Amino acid sequence: MNCTKTGLLIAQLRKDKNITQKQLADMMHISDRTISKWERGMGTPDVSLLTDIADIFNINIETLLNGEIINNNIIGGNMKKIKYYICKTCGNIITSTGDAAVSCCDKKLTAQSPQKAEEHEHLDIETIDNELYITSNHPMEKDHYISFVAFSTGSQLQLIKQYPEWSLQVRIPHMKHGLLVWYCTKHGLFYQHL
Fold first, then answer.
1. 57, 19 in Cβ contact below 8 A?
2. At what angle do helices 50-57 and 21-28 cross, to 10 degrees?
3. Separation of alpha carbons 117 and 131, rounded Å
4. What pTM, to 2 d.p., does this model score?
């Protein structure tokens, strides 16, 4: 932890939140001289206070330790290039249109890289009543199943959660072109073009 960078970040966050050093000190049950010392780079917060500081300023502890907030570039966000973060512990699914710092179950997640499905791995698709009816003979057992199916076009994403021991049957509105993505709990993220 760089004392100066962390101190400057605390000062910036405090001013952005429009609170005084005394108000911040009162929230944390410490002296305002301690806050002043941190902001001048003359010391750093005790490890036991990092969670409180992160909660007050709504940042993660890693940002506080690094002493800087790194903003992503503003992007248009083509939904076909959406990133999927999947927690292997609880099955949580998080998406983003750009880079993101994502964590779940106290673990940092990395974006899954979808792999192009081989012909024999493709999901079965029929058009019924102007909808795509998607099925598969993929195992849907408790330890091996497709946990979600997603369909994205340039401007839309539709994500449908699936559950073990249910047969895979998904209906989505028919659109001309898009990317069909699914996640197998054993083999990872796959895609096929429609």
1. no
2. 120
3. 22
4. 0.70
Identity of residue 42: M
Residue 55's identity, in one-letter code, is: D
Distance CA 144, CA 68 (A): 41
What pLDDT, on a 0 to 100 scale, did the predictor assign at position 16?
94
| Residue where the block lists tokens 């081989």 | 118
Contact predicate 113/85, CB 8 Å = no
Which residue spans within the chain are E strands per DSSP?
Answer: 83-86, 93-96, 102-104, 107-109, 115-116, 124-128, 131-135, 146-152, 157-161, 169-173, 179-184, 188-193
What's the mean pLDDT in 33-59?
A: 93
Q: How many residues does the chain have?
A: 194
